[in-house]
Amino acid sequence: MIIPEGYAQINYIFSGANFSRGAQVTLGLQNTISDLNAGAVATAAATAWENNLLPLQVDSLTLVEVRAKLGPNETGPEATEPVGVAGGESDTPLPPNVATLVKKVTDQGGRKNRGRFFLPGMSELAILNDGNYDPAILATLNAALGDFYADLVAADLEPVVLHTDILDSPTDINALVAQSKVATQKRRLRKVGGRRNVED
Predict the structure, then answer these.
(1) In angstroms, rounded to a whole number, what is the distance separating the alpha carbons of residues 43 and 65?
(2) What does the alpha-carbon distance between residue 12 and residue 10 come to, in Å, rounded to a whole number?
(3) Which of 17, 80, 127, 170 is most exposed, with minimal Cβ within 10 Å?
(4) Residue 123: Cβ within 10 Å count
(5) Domain spans in the chain, listed from the N-terminal domain onward
(6) pTM of the entire structure?
(7) pLDDT per residue over 68-106, tens digit each?
(8) CA–CA separation, 117 vs 101, rounded Å?
(9) In b/e form, how buried is each residue of 10-20, taking b as 16+ CB within 10 angstroms?
(10) Which has the closest alpha carbon to 14: 116, 114, 118?
């Protein structure tokens, strides 16, 4: 992934008894307003997740740490924010290869301007027999995603889709929206640094 100067890539690192290979969520951020250093970016990104999304994840999943890599790829600084906090729900999690699909909504067309990530560690009790979320729980989750997004923006970190082509500028994300039906990761499971990568 290309991280231009003025941008950052965030890696949320998870582990837990039901996640023997761990899990990651990645997100691009624009960092041009306040030009925060890598440590401040990692801290703000960790706080936004811990305050808004972690309470909805199961307590057998732990947000271990949050890594921030600033652009450019070759020389940009990086930092890690230790977290070590478990989710707030005591329910049984969904199977490791099943997760909530979160769409990165943009106003640009084309596949390269779209993005998504798999949100691990959600409760199986939130899912109905047809594989869809209970509507009330889905509404709560989408409200939390909205608050997560707003907290990043308030920290002068605008969410973006990063690209693999150096000629493509990052695409602004307008919203993060959980899809109503859970998604399987069976075709996307692959090791990245010994962990499961849960972004597409």
Answers:
(1) 10
(2) 6
(3) 17
(4) 18
(5) 7-187
(6) 0.89
(7) 999 999 999 999 999 999 999 998 888 877 879 999 999
(8) 6
(9) bbbbbbbeebe
(10) 118
